[in-house]
Amino acid sequence: MKSRVSIDKFGRIVIPAQIRRKLGIKTGSILVIELRGSMIVIRPVSNIDEVVDKWFEKMINMNVEARYFRPRGSKWFGDEYVKRKLGID
User: Fold this and answer.
1) pLDDT confidence of residue 74
2) What is the value of pTM for the model shown?
3) What is the DSSP string of 41-60?
4) Sign of CA dihedral 38, 44, 48, 51
5) What residues have CB less than 8 Å from 13, skipping those under 6 apart?
6) 72 or 7, which is more confident?
7) Alpha-carbon dihedral sign for residues 58, 59, 65, 68
8) Rounded-to-integer distance, Cα 64 and Cα 83, Å
9) Burial class (CB in 10 A: 0-12, 13-18, 19+), 60
């Protein structure tokens, strides 16, 4: 489903009624706006978004020391390999 919309002078758009009905978007619904490359993605907040947000908040508030496991002898996990693949010097 595609629609063309315009932006008003305040940067607002109107989501067409047929799309709002299909997605169950009503007055007061919360939407997520994401930038993906040159695209803007607007989607309703799902239950998983709320679960992840709550989990993230709990993790931030925990006072624990992070630990990690680094396999030995594998080029796939080495810092130099990862930096080279990501183009980081």
Assistant:
1) 66
2) 0.50
3) EEEEPPHHHHHHHHHHHHHH
4) positive
5) 5, 6, 7
6) 7
7) positive
8) 27
9) exposed
